[in-house]
Write a structure and sequence with these properties.
Elongation Factor Tu (Ef-tu), domain 3; eight-stranded antiparallel sheet; 19 helices; Rossmann fold; single chain; alpha+beta; six-stranded antiparallel beta barrel
Length: about 600
């Protein structure tokens, strides 16, 4: 790395003393002004593979380093398996220490390397021999790096910001600094970011890209961020910096695992070490289908239960290592980060095939169809990692219904109809049991059927129903009408007549209900009909008046407009006792016919 870039990547005292890489090292190189490379120098020793894994996740272009005087070593095989499992697509084979061997041994080392990478992503890749002591092959390697870099697909800066943290330290005068390879999106100065797991927020105070100050960092770049509002102990290698409020960490993922042919069978409930990006956690494997183990060289769907939360997204690659002894046994790809806790075994393969091979629309449709009350665009983005535009494209899906207000929402069309049908059934049952009531309380329906749904959903569904009608806070069938029996009609007439004849000195409400000719429960329902139709007016809990009496009272008060009066004057005008005067005056205040001012009132 020093010969190639001029940068010493071994920073630890033990690394310099022993002459080996122990932890990750970082360097950068500009080639002909139009290509800029960031290097992650990972340790090669078998004891430090877990450190290698923390740096390998963000690699676009691999340099597979093989010493010409030693050729293929066990750790070379393990590193190569890891890179293949991580989905790296391009690379160069570099034979180092070329000055220590003669031409024949160097040729043999090249043949062995070419044979080693056959039938892999490095088959046919350039092989270059170099010497860091003499400089042999360094310029050729730079030329090959430039050629390969120009042909390598760049990471998307249009995606959502995600930075796996591989180093945390404090700089005097600056505070907390984190570094990592920006795997998606972009980050700018003064932007607020979030640490997952945990959700702690911080502000980006400064940015460096490849050691130079920058206003913005883009996907694929080695990035250092100076964070305000964050202490070093709040962060660690394995954390992920993300957009504020966008993503959360998870402790359960469904995935597809590929086993190495050299591994032992992976059994159900086996403990493993799980590595993704810079994170390492212990996990338990739950096989989701087929036999009780995934055979060496085989593939299978599994659920991983992580001991500690990790921020992951569908499509993220990972490595699994045996719990003991700790060796790499396989890897795979995350398919789902918030899977349902229980699934029927018969549904597992069909479901995970959608997440493994389906289009963006098919994945969104599946998540929306599984959600009991539908799902928001924001949650779909956080569950899938898709861009908002990709989620928005699903608005026209024939399987889904889209709501735009108060937020973008997708719900399975069949499920929506099922919810509306359930509401219809509940309202119909209410009408049968309560024929004299106008409708059922929406709040009651929400608490019974929509307690876990977003507050807006029931009203949104009702707007799309022609069968159900909303009257304020009541819900009824559009066809619902009151059909009173003869005895009920007669009772209504008796009640209305009793209040009409009484004027402002009405009888006790209880007495009227008892003398109307029907049982008490029904008489109260009939009273509600009269109140609802406005033929009677409730002034207080125990006082009810006929609307004609109240209209006459208001007309009388209008003749005193602008006058101030006290309770005695009101009693004189109306000829009623204090028993009725005070509740009526309070009613007139509520109706804004009068306004109380101390012990007097003003007629408005």
């Amino acid at each position: 790395m020093r010969a190639l870039t001029g940068i010493e990547t071994d920073r630890l005292e033990e690394e310099k003393r022993r002459g080996i890489s122990i932890d990750l090292g970082f360097a950068h190189l500009s080639l002909d002004g139009d290509v800029r490379l960031g290097f992650v120098d990972v340790p090669g020793h078998e004891r430090f593979v877990k450190n290698m894994l923390a740096g390998a996740g963000g690699v676009d272009l691999l340099l597979l380093v093989i010493a010409a005087d030693e050729s293929i070593k066990p750790q070379t095989r393990e590193h190569f398996d890891i890179c293949r499992l991580l989905g790296i697509q391009r690379g160069i084979v570099v034979l180092t220490k070329a000055d220590l061997v003669d031409a024949d041994l160097l040729g043999l080392a090249k043949l062995e390397a070419e044979e080693f990478v056959q039938a892999s992503f490095l088959e046919g890749a350039p092989v270059v021999a170099v010497s860091s002591r003499t400089g042999q092959g360094i310029e050729e390697l730079k030329r090959l790096l430039r050629e390969q870099a120009l042909e390598t697909e760049e990471k998307s800066s249009a995606g959502h910001f995600r930075l796996p943290v591989d180093r945390v330290f404090t700089m005097k005068g600056f505070g907390t600094v984190v570094t990592g390879t920006l795997i998606s999106g972009a980050v700018a100065g003064e932007q607020e970011v979030e640490v997952q797991p945990g959700g702690k927020k911080a502000r980006v105070r400064g940015i460096q890209v490849h050691g130079a100050e920058a206003e913005k960092a883009l996907a694929g770049q080695r990035t250092a961020l100076n964070l305000a509002g964050m202490e070093p102990e709040d962060l660690r290698r394995g954390a992920m910096l993300v957009e504020k409020g966008r993503f959360e960490a998870t402790t359960m993922v469904d995935c597809e695992i590929e086993m190495l042919s050299s591994a032992k069978p992976l059994k159900h409930r086996a403990p493993v070490h799980f590595h993704a990006w810079t994170a390492e956690v212990e996990a338990q494997v739950r096989l989701l289908e087929g036999p009780d183990a995934i055979a060496p060289g085989g593939k299978g769907f599994a659920r991983l239960l992580l001991r500690d939360p990790v921020q992951l997204l569908p499509g993220d690659r990972f490595i699994v290592r045996m719990f003991s002894p700790v060796v790499t046994i396989g890897g795979g790809r995350v398919l789902e980060i918030a899977p349902p806790p229980r699934m029927r075994r018969a549904q597992v393969r069909e479901r995970l095939e959608v997440f493994s091979k389906g289009t963006a629309r098919e994945r969104v449709e599946r998540l929306a169809m599984e959600a009991r009350y539908g799902i928001s665009f924001a949650e779909l983005v956080s569950r899938t990692g898709l861009a908002e535009a990709n989620v928005a494209d699903c608005r026209n899906s024939p399987k889904l219904v889209h709501f735009a207000e108060p937020q973008d929402w997708l719900i399975d069309g069949a499920r929506m109809q099922s919810l509306v049908d359930k509401l219809l059934k509940m309202v119909s049952a209410f009408h049968r049991q309560n024929p004299l009531l106008p409708g059922i309380s929406k709040q009651e329906l929400r608490s019974r059927e929509f307690a876990q749904a977003p507050a807006f959903l029931m009203d949104t569904l009702l707007k799309r129903s022609r069968t159900l009608v909303s009257d304020g806070e009541l819900l009824r069938l559009a066809s619902h009408k009151l059909n009173l029996r003869q005895e009920e009609e007669e009772a209504v007439g008796k009640m209305e007549k009793a209040f009409h004849m009484a004027g402002l000195e009405v009888p006790a409400l209880k007495a009227v209900l008892m003398n109307c000719g029907v049982e008490p429960a029904k008489s109260r329902s009939l009273l509600q009909i009269l109140l609802r139709e406005g033929r009677l007016v409730r002034v207080s809990e125990d006082l009810v008046f006929h609307r004609d009496a109240m209209e006459s009272l208001k007309q009388m008060m209008a003749r005193h407009k602008g006058e101030r009066f006290a309770v005695p004057a009101f009693k004189s005008w109306t000829g009623i006792s204090r028993k009725y005067a005070i509740p009526l005056l309070e009613y007139l205040d509520r109706e804004r016919v009068t306004r109380r001012e101390g012990d007097e009132r003003l007629v408005l």
